[in-house]
Amino acid sequence: MTRQHPGEHMAAEISEQPAVLAGLVERRAGIADVAEKISQKPPRFALLAARGSSDHAALYAKYLIEVLLGLPAGLVSPSTATLYGARPDLRDVLFVTVSQSGGSPDLIEVTEAARRQGALTVSVTNTPDSPLRAAAELGVDIGAGVEKAVAATKTYSATLLALYLFIDAVRGGKGEDAERIGELAQRTLDGSAEGVQRAVDRYRFVDRVLTTGRGYSYATALEGSLKLAETSYLAARAYSGADLLHGPVAAVDGETAVLAATSAGRGGEAMREVLEAVGERGADVLAVGSAAADMPAALGIPVAPSAEELAPVLEVLPIQRIALGLSLARGGDPDSPRGLLKVTKTR
Question: What's any GO biological process attached to this entry (predicted)?
């Protein structure tokens, strides 16, 4: 029996992402069919339900819906339905449930409840034969293939892209900005390798990390924090760049590492003031993104430029590799973090 090396699955699945993303773009016609059914009866607003990494993808979708569709959007609390039995009027509401496994009981239950309350329900999942897909009226298949590592990598980036293609199609788009996303992902992985290694060497002994971003990239900050916590057991916290300046910046000092998602666009430019502020307090700043080279940071890791709306699909790739590298450098195995399972079932 072949012995598995620590991080083997996570490393392989990170490397698969360019092909996974390119394949998803090729299958976007199926996503457009789902979007067409929604366009036939435009919703009043949208709600999204998710947990874990999928919750960060749902936050990204919230930004897309509000900016690209001009609709109010919110993240629901599944426990209001599963624990408290709330049954709000959801007529003419688009209810999107995001779950890589499609197996969490609370997400299934809240989707069933939303459908009974009149919502048009859509599942976005990597498991098309899952109970969640059966609970929802419509379904978007992520199509990332089996993911063996506990830490989500290819399923996360594919979920982001699936949500983008879905929401873009609802507004009548053809996904043109995503046409070359597989190529851009490969360029990002290749072009960031040296910076990733420098970051691993620089931060392998750090104990406290803040991750931050604004706009679409706030989702990247949240996902980056989760990856560092679950693979390297770091005390990692994520903040919107705006929220960071509203109080938490007081806890920043020379012992703090700050990982910032800074891709070109309005969100990335808004991070300049934030990074100047934490830098003045002595923080060691790592900027990741297509605008990283222009940011006040001790270390910058480049990401291939793209439309701002798609930046989170790319900027998370080197962050995943940093999490992988730090875990291995600290003697861990990111494929099997202690106390975690691939599918977490909550209610």
Answer: carbohydrate derivative metabolic process
